[in-house]
Amino acid sequence: MNEFLVEITTTVPDGTAPDEVDRRRAAEAVRARELAAAGHLARLWRPVGELRSIGIWLAADEDELREKVLGNLPLRPWMTLTVTPLESHPNDPGRS
Hints:
Structural class: alpha+beta
Strand content: 25-35%
Distance between the termini: 15 Å
Helix content: 25-40%
Shape: elongated
Strand order of the largest sheet: 2-3-1-4
Number of strands: 4
């Protein structure tokens, strides 16, 4: 599996009913746990004071990541994504 740095900004469309937002956010939490258990979501952070997420995601390639992993997130229609493919650095202390 390849690693990707993914930055996600979610913008709820104006006029969206609060119960729809709550429903999607709850479904998003469930899906994130499923993707972590399946080995696709390694880490997820929220920068202090910001409404965006930064995570390390894993997939066979960027197409799989965008289509099969991120593409089925409940909040995906409201998301803007920046995907950066990663490779190991020779000086990475975690490199085996």
